[in-house]
Amino acid sequence: MSTAQSLDLVVKSETEDQAEPPAPTATPALDATIVEGPAALLSLTSDWQRLIDASPRGRIFQTPQHLAIWAEHFASDPKVGFKCVVVRRNGQVVLIWPLAFWKIGPLKLTQTAGAPVAQYEDILVEHKNEAASLFAPALAEMERAGIDLILMERVRADSALAAVLPPQTVALGEEDGAPFVDLSSGDVETALAGRKGKVKRHQKKRIVALAEEGELRLEVAPDGPTTRQWLREATEMKRAWLTEKGFLSRAFLDERTNQCLEAFAERHGGADVKTGMTAARLTVGGRPVATEIAYRLGGDYLLFLGAFAPEYGRFGPGNVLTEMVLRWCVQNGITRYDMLPPRYRNKHEWETGEVLVHDFGVPLSWRGGFYLRAVLGYGKPRLKRLYYALPLPLRSRLANLMLRL
């Protein structure tokens, strides 16, 4: 380059500098704080809802509506703390992580708030592609707070939380799945076109046989009090079935689960809710024979509990109700019928896809790592296998004693 050309560049540069100084390129500041849960629900309402609305799928259990009622029943325990990690970027809330804190001896643990009722866990961010950078200061805040172990249950593979798992994360148990029916086509026949002919014929036989017992009708609870009553009736049927089979449900080992569900149904139940709970039932000749209890968020219907009258079990009333509810969902703008984990044979009959889910533990200290591997990774699975190896009559008696439905 000639001296003249160099001089021209220098003069041009100086002229541009005088005309308009370059803008600073400082990295936006991220600040993480821990806020008391009830205070966060009140002070961050608009930010919380903004983050929910940005990506609502599977996040009903992290909504303010659900967590406020969960906190009344579970965080009122002095041994449990309900707090939120809030990350701000230049003052704006960009991440909310609601958490429950508790201790086992000297061990400090935390888990996404909502357990044991919540069926999915997640963090709230507006854009999933920046979740990792936003989660880093939140995790650092957990370390500063002296947390030994973070537990994460039923983390969806498509969630923001799954995208930010740190390197020391340990997978717990076996991978599971959440089957769903994609109703985005707006037509049930299109959605279920892939079902095998044998399955379709069997379903028709169920409907015909059940119709011989009386007129089949689908009823949807119109309001909160009715939703609560149908929920109560469904849990009674569910308890009878679990006891007979000797099955245990972790959520229903705690009587507060029932109280929490009923309170949510009372306040946020009905046929037209956008964020809440819906109860649907099949009646035969005016008698209820099968009931579904589902959470609702936007276009998602999340099947939480299904139950049927045992004397009608041979007719498969749950499957008949499923088909009727799918048609109701399409008529009411619902685009996904989420059957939630775990996988079951009766769910496979209907599913058009599934989302993988897994449990994880994130140790932040040697104590947390030891408890994770020795108790959760080794001891707990063996106790579960031991229980289900017991004779059915004994399991049935134990289930009757332990279930709190």
UniProtKB/TrEMBL annotation:
Q: Is-annotated flag, keyword Transferase? A: yes
Q: Where is the BioF2-like acetyltransferase domain?
A: 198-345
The keyword Nucleotide-binding is annotated on this UniProt entry? no
**InterPro entries the record matches:** Acyl_CoA_acyltransferase (IPR016181), BioF2-like_GNAT_dom (IPR038740)
GO MF term list: transferase activity
Q: Which keywords does this Swiss-Prot/TrEMBL entry list? A: Transferase
Put simply, this protein is called Acetyltransferase involved in cellulose biosynthesis, CelD/BcsL family
